[in-house]
Design goal:
alpha/beta; 2 domains; Pantoate--beta-alanine Ligase, Chain: A,domain 2; globular; Rossmann fold; six-stranded parallel sheet
Length: 283
């Protein structure tokens, strides 16, 4: 595996691979890699002749500067993991490489960006689109892999890819969970052991709600999840929305859409670590 921090060298390296007929798989990450990321890399390695993984903590998608400052950075460990997984290229640029000048482009894809994370994290999805579009143009992958834990982000990336007519297949990959059910996330590293145990209740509540929903309405299911999360000392729900998996708009009934997903965001512990998860009810 080669480690590259320069876009020009990246382009030269990938052009040489394409010249041999290689299809390129791409996994964009912000580092602090875990088994969830590893599953994306493994799928890319399986489906493509060459795999590129970017490691870049993108400042433009953080609306909370404290969150940016405390985001875990483990570049050396990340490189060791990627090499063991069979990645061909680790692209780890600095901020100056990705943003030699301010990116003033704006991206908005209502109704997808108008709900859930959109209004609660102003500028977040605009920053996601800025960096992912830059990376897509630098890497020019045939396929790009994203985890379904960030369910709304995948919908936004699909919309941006179509809008910019980028020839990239967006591949959504299942959530990878810890043995106790907690969705794997780089932010889990910020949890104390006590908070880590508490956070596992998020998935327990969601799994319970999947059974509960079989005999209860959408509104009853939503209210039950919110009450269950808020009843646990140290957990506080920010929102729980039950939505059409295509438009991300709230549904009123289980027959309103062929695919329905419940998306939850909650704060955990005294430092209010923000965790997201989702559960599929239908489709």
């Amino acid at each position: 595996m080669v480690i590259i921090d320069n876009a020009r060298i990246l382009a030269e390296t990938l052009d040489a691979l394409r010249g041999k007929g290689a299809e390129i798989g791409f996994v964009p990450t912000m580092g602090a890699l875990h088994a969830g990321h590893a599953s994306l890399v493994e799928r890319s390695v399986k489906e493509n002749a060459a795999t590129v993984v970017s490691v870049f903590v993108n400042p433009t998608q953080f609306n909370d500067q404290t969150d940016l400052a405390t985001y875990p950075r483990t570049l050396e460990a990340d490189a060791q993991l990627l090499e063991s997984l069979g990645a061909d290229v680790m692209f780890a640029p600095g901020v100056e490489e990705m943003y030699p000048e301010p990116d003033t482009r704006t991206f908005s894809y209502p109704p997808i960006t108008s709900v859930m994370e959109g209004p609660r994290r102003p500028g977040h999805f605009n920053g996601v689109c800025q960096i992912v579009s830059k990376l897509f143009r630098m890497v020019r992958p045939d396929r790009a892999y994203f985890g379904e834990k960030d369910f709304q982000q995948i919908a936004v990336v699909r919309a941006m890819t179509a809008d910019l007519a980028l020839p990239v297949e967006i591949c959504a990959c299942p959530i990878v969970r810890e043995p106790d059910g907690l969705a794997m996330s780089s932010r889990n590293a910020r949890l104390t052991p006590e908070e880590r145990s508490l956070a596992a209740n998020i998935s327990r509540v969601l799994f319970y709600s999947r059974d509960y929903a079989r005999s209860h309405s959408v509104s009853e299911t939503q209210a039950t999840v919110l009450r269950a999360i808020d009843a646990l000392e140290g957990l506080q729900a920010e929102y729980f929305e039950i939505v059409d998996d295509s438009t991300l708009q709230p549904v009123a009934g289980w027959d309103d859409a062929p695919g329905i997903v419940g998306c939850l965001t909650a704060y955990c512990g005294s430092r209010h670590v923000r965790l997201i998860d989702n559960i599929r009810y239908k489709g």
